[in-house]
């Protein structure tokens, strides 16, 4: 019994010592964490005597009256613009003072995009390609924002940003090759039409699922921040995509991680057939920025200069201050959502005609150039003829090209082809050989 009693005493002493050691380590760890937290957040010393909320989750004051916050207590966020509908500069201090050559480039890119849209839209209607989405009415958001970026900035598009890629120098034959999925397509025929991408131009390949690019852009911007280089990320999306959960995750991550990211929302009035009054009850998309701790602005998306100014300043500050910005560009989708949509089923012809004839970004910029003697009717006719000829040449070339080699179905997945892929590949070729009359391999690149 004495031995047992001695053993118990020794166990108790050892257990007490272990607990003391563990407690000391835990205390030091907590002190270290507190020091780090204090160093990072610079929190004020806790003082319970102050009659102010001490909750760490928000900055506020106590009140003694029960009152819910009304959604309309604040007037609508204003829309920033530089030009009126007739192309007149409203406030000279906001004129970006762009050169004649730059403005002409804006106009020619916007109208070239318009011409390409018309030809490829008709191509789909004739059964030459499977699908297409036009950019009618939103050309100002593309060109104005693209011009304000650095070529090294990374772009995440949705599916209606062809003008951004065109401004960066993506050639017409590559646009056509992608829509025709021919052997010249950088995506090797694996994507549906209008899903462009270019590594050389820092334009991430577009994917079909809605809003997936938003958290991806936040991650890319965080990586850019860690590299500590003069580079920003811009992420385009529509107001419909802003209703997806991915949008909220992307907003919150970018704000809390303080990323050099520009969220660019094209609010064109409709998420396919759903008008904005059925999508949300709040004041658009820009109003959501402050809730996530982001600086926000609403601009006239049909005013290419307003878009340019807002994007340029957002880009400058995003890089200099490592913080995200939210731009809501108010515009209108004049065309159908896609070739799978008939917009006449949910909006009137008069509504579309107003935006097409009275408040179009191309006509507004043309008014500006005409007033300065930079553009004439003869210039317009000559340019329209030339641009159509250029687009048609690229169109005809793309249509004659062969389809990509079927072997490309199995490449670019792994560095070395896995046994399962090898099995699928062998199965494909057995099938093709057995039913070769249904697979005209002479139409495919060797």
From TrEMBL:
Belongs to the BCKDHA family. Keywords: Metal-binding, Mitochondrion, Oxidoreductase, Potassium, Thiamine pyrophosphate, Transit peptide. Its cofactor is thiamine diphosphate. Its EC number is 1.2.4.4. Residues 108-407 form the Dehydrogenase E1 component domain. GO terms for molecular function: branched-chain 2-oxo acid dehydrogenase activity; metal ion binding. The gene is BCKDHA. InterPro entries: Alpha-ketoacid_DH_E1_comp, DH_E1, THDP-binding. It catalyses: N(6)-[(R)-lipoyl]-L-lysyl-[protein] + 3-methyl-2-oxobutanoate + H(+) = N(6)-[(R)-S(8)-2-methylpropanoyldihydrolipoyl]-L-lysyl-[protein] + CO2. It is found in: Mitochondrion matrix. Heterotetramer of 2 alpha/BCKDHA and 2 beta chains/BCKDHB that forms the branched-chain alpha-keto acid decarboxylase (E1) component of the BCKD complex. The branched-chain alpha-ketoacid dehydrogenase is a large complex composed of three major building blocks E1, E2 and E3. It is organized around E2, a 24-meric cubic core composed of DBT, to which are associated 6 to 12 copies of E1, and approximately 6 copies of the dehydrogenase E3, a DLD dimer. Interacts with PPM1K. GO terms for biological process: branched-chain amino acid catabolic process. It holds the Pfam family E1_dh. This is 2-oxoisovalerate dehydrogenase subunit alpha. PANTHER family: 2-OXOISOVALERATE DEHYDROGENASE SUBUNIT ALPHA, MITOCHONDRIAL (PTHR43380). The keyword Mitochondrion applies. SUPFAM superfamilies: Thiamin diphosphate-binding fold (THDP-binding). GO terms for cellular component: mitochondrial matrix. Together with BCKDHB forms the heterotetrameric E1 subunit of the mitochondrial branched-chain alpha-ketoacid dehydrogenase (BCKD) complex. The BCKD complex catalyzes the multi-step oxidative decarboxylation of alpha-ketoacids derived from the branched-chain amino-acids valine, leucine and isoleucine producing CO2 and acyl-CoA which is subsequently utilized to produce energy. The E1 subunit catalyzes the first step with the decarboxylation of the alpha-ketoacid forming an enzyme-product intermediate. The branched-chain alpha-keto dehydrogenase complex catalyzes the overall conversion of alpha-keto acids to acyl-CoA and CO(2). It contains multiple copies of three enzymatic components: branched-chain alpha-keto acid decarboxylase (E1), lipoamide acyltransferase (E2) and lipoamide dehydrogenase (E3). Its main location: mitochondrion. It comes from Lates calcarifer.
């Amino acid at each position: 019994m004495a031995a047992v009693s001695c053993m118990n005493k020794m166990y108790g002493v050892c257990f007490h010592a272990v607990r003391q050691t563990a407690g000391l380590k835990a205390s030091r760890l907590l002190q270290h964490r507190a020091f780090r937290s204090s160093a990072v957040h610079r929190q004020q010393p806790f003082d319970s005597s102050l009659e102010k909320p001490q909750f760490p989750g928000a900055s506020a004051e106590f009140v003694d009256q029960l009152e819910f916050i009304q959604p309309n207590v604040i007037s609508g966020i204003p829309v920033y613009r530089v030009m009126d509908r007739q192309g007149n500069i409203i406030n000279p201090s906001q004129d970006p003072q762009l050169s004649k050559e730059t403005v002409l480039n804006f106009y020619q890119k916007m109208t070239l995009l318009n011409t390409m849209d018309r030809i490829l839209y008709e191509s789909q209607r004739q059964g030459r390609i499977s699908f297409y989405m036009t950019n009618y009415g939103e050309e100002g958001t593309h060109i104005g924002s693209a011009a304000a970026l650095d070529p090294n900035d990374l772009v995440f598009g949705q599916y209606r940003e062809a003008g951004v890629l065109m401004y960066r120098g993506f050639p017409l034959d590559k646009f056509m090759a992608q829509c025709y999925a021919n052997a010249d397509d950088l995506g090797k025929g694996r994507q549906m039409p209008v899903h462009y991408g270019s590594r050389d131009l820092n334009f991430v390949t577009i994917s079909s699922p809605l809003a997936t690019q938003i958290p991806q852009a936040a991650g890319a911007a965080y990586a850019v921040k860690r590299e500590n280089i003069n580079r920003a990320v811009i992420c385009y999306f529509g107001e419909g995509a802003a209703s997806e959960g991915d949008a909220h995750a992307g907003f919150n991550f970018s704000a809390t991680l303080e990323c050099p990211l520009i969220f660019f929302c094209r609010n064109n009035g409709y998420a396919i057939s759903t008008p904005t009054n059925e999508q949300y009850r709040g004041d658009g998309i820009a109003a959501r920025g402050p809730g996530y701790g982001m600086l926000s602005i609403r601009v006239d998306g049909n005013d290419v200069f307003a878009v340019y100014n807002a994007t340029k300043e957002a880009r400058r500050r995003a890089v200099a201050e490592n913080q995200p910005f939210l731009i809501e560009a108010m515009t209108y989708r004049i065309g159908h959502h896609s070739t799978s949509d008939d917009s006449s089923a949910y909006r009137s012809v008069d509504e579309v005609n107003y935006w097409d004839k009275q408040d179009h970004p191309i006509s507004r910029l043309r008014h500006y150039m005409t007033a300065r003697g930079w553009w004439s009717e003869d210039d317009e006719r000559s340019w329209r003829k030339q641009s159509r000829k250029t687009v048609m040449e690229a169109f005809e070339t793309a249509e004659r090209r062969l389809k990509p080699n079927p072997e490309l179905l199995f490449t670019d997945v792994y560095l070395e082809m896995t046994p399962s892929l090898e099995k699928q590949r062998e199965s494909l070729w057995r099938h093709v050989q057995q039913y070769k009359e249904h697979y005209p391999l002479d139409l495919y690149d060797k």
